[in-house]
Amino acid sequence: MKKLLFVLLVLLMILPVSAQIRGNNIVVMVSPDHKDWNYRVGEKAHFEVSVLKSSTLLNNIEVNYEAGPEMYPEVKKTTVLKDGTMKWTGTMQQPGFYRLKVVAKVDGKEYTGACTAAFSPEKLVPTTVDPADFDAFWSKALEEARWTALDPQRELLPDRSNEDVNVYQVSFQNIRWGSRTYGILSVPVKPGKYPALLRVPGAGVRPYTGDTYTAPTKAIVLEIGIHGVDVTQPQTFYDNLMNGALNGYWNYGMDNRDDSYYKRVIVGCVRSVDYIASLPEWDSKTIGVTGASQGGFLSYATAALDNRITFLAAVHPALCDHTASLKGVACGWPHYFYWNKGKGKEKQIETSRYYDGVNFVRRITCPAWVSFGYNDDVVPPTTAYATYNILKGQKTLSVYQQTAHFWYQEQWDEWLDWLRKQMKIDN
């Protein structure tokens, strides 16, 4: 019996470890000679490339590399690194980001490394035009939406609730009767008045579990979906939508500002604030909004359109400076005019100005925390930095240079800590 117990104990110790897969044994390191990855316009950035296996250099490795302003590389070459190393020098004569990307081929597989140097990024300015009737357009959209009562509904989710937090699936009317926004609401069980946080989603179609980790006993949190469907279904339900009716939804209705898919989405974010403000548990003072990628853009839009928002946090915010590519500069996801150079897209260009994070940011006055990575090839740092530069009021920039379109644990922790501080919540 003792022997059997010992074997079981060993198995319990080993199984969790054996189930974990972390990183790659082969790594392509691309390093700059400035620790902060920042340079002045006209300076030279010196890069060192190392292809490593088990932290030691590999010999005779074939690599493909490209270098130049992000999204517009000027050099594309293939070479063999005899000792696994390579040096490169790049510069820019105007503010922007210069990227060296290296792809190594080892045993039939590809491994990628990159380094993106910033050249006077604080001088970047966005390109998008601010429509004269931007405010009137959105004021009218919200006024018309509010002709429809919220008609809030909620369903307790016992399997997600506990003695400290009640978790519900909720829904309420959005832009017109029958058009509903669905989300997961977390409310502390203990009676009282609480600050609130609205979580807005990144791109895609998915279920949501709700936020019971930021401040489970000290804040109200509403995490919403944007597609007007139940957010508690199996993943296959959302996969079918993403591969069917909602495939490429970000392109829908771009010929007319009133038909854009994002009109309903943005109105739904503001109506989510309406819903939070209707809750008797809300403290009537503090509502923040936060999200990453598409959610970063929606955070900007919500804070711009609703002065009840008291703080925002945006991570690698997408949908900013759509028209930059018309000037040969990196543009924000979903890169509307990058491939076609805007030819024959005059209506879409005009529509994009009403759905550009830049134009929402121009109207934000609440405290903001913004974070992104220099190696992001989905949301280029050119757009993220240019948009940040025009933020007014109290703002904090937290750059994690090496991240691409993801975040590190330290970045996540800093994000949550900042949100808690704004809500005056101790960890």
Molecular structure report:
It is a single chain. The chain is globular and about 65 Å long. The model is unreliable at 6-15 (pLDDT under 50). It has 427 residues and is α/β, with parallel strands linked by helices. It has nine helices and 18 strands. Helix 4 (261-278) crosses helix 5. The strands form three sheets. The chain has a nine-stranded mixed β-sheet with strand order 10-11-12-14-13-15-16-17-18, sandwiched between helices. Strands 2-9-8-5-6 form a five-stranded mixed β-sheet, with no helix packed on it. Strands 1, 3, 4 and 7 form a four-stranded antiparallel β-sheet that branches. Helices cover 24% and strands 29% of the residues.
SSE order in H/E notation?
Answer: HEEEEEEEEEHEEEEEHHEHEHHEHEH
Structural class: alpha/beta
Query: Unreliable stretches, pLDDT < 50, 5 or more residues?
Result: 6-15
What is the percentage of strand-forming residues?
25-35%
Rounded to the nearest angstrom, the radius of gyration is 24 Å
Overall pLDDT, averaged? 94
- Portion in helices: 10-25%
**SS field, number of helical segments:** 9
Distance between the termini: 45 Å
Please state the overall shape, judged from the principal axes of the Cα atoms. globular
Major sheet details = 9 strands, mixed
- Order of adjacent strands in the largest pleated sheet: 10-11-12-14-13-15-16-17-18
Strand elements, count:
18
In short:
Helices cover 24% and strands 29% of the residues. It has 427 residues and is α/β, with parallel strands linked by helices.
